[in-house]
């Protein structure tokens, strides 16, 4: 009699513990899914290419080639966590690159040019934030206006490509520190530092906690006396600043600036952030997850290159993964709502 009573009680305790774990850690499930997909791709590619795929130089190049995208993804994470979107980041990256390259061509030192590029990005981000917060413009429309503005300003600077010869800017990309067969560039280190700072801001500051609160329920955040307006403005400023920094990195990566650079990059950034587990409705997500999403994106491009097929398959694969993760997000949100 006693044993039959203990067994159901034990089973109930296990189910209850599992329920608590899923409730508390549901936001990490998409991140783990992204990690699983990344690991599966690496293992599958290694097997398919008879062990010739996975090598330190190749893995190092993924960070090198996607440093600018990683920086953009950090800024985009802040905006999406508030329930917004920023379609301007690719155009801002292009414009700040054009403006910075023109200033360098005119003889200004890189120590002045780089902060100016970041300030230009922050200013455009602030303008988008003001439209969203104080003029009640939808983030999609406000950031679309910012995208057209930045793209137009890039063409105003120059219709042609501007070559960058400044040694300090080019040093960011050309200098490599080797650790055996592995290597890292200054742009890669800069991108990882941005990830670290973004993760710390979200996890351990009042600003970060308010970001989550605003994205979770903006009305409740207002009732709790949280600085909703200032937080949303700062989220777009962070995104714009990251876009300006990405302009510095991308200019160093290509060695030139061109007004058509960055077309479609905003969509790549959003895809990486969503694949990394950040909910499009806001309130749930992590910078680390966005980094994983960028690595998934970079790994897909690398595998497509190894296969020697058309690059359009990169878009097709990313589109399929994006659809999958949006469905996963909807399932998680629905299950969380039922548990409440």
From TrEMBL:
Its main location: membrane. The chain crosses the membrane at residues 28-49, 69-100, 112-134, 140-162, 182-204, 233-258, 270-300, 312-333. Keywords: Cell membrane, Membrane, Transmembrane, Transmembrane helix. It comes from the Bacteria. It is found in: Cell membrane. CDD domains: TM_PBP1_transp_AraH_like (cd06579). It is a multi-pass membrane protein. This is Sugar ABC transporter permease YjfF. The lineage of its organism: Bacteria, Bacillati, Actinomycetota, Actinomycetes, Micrococcales.
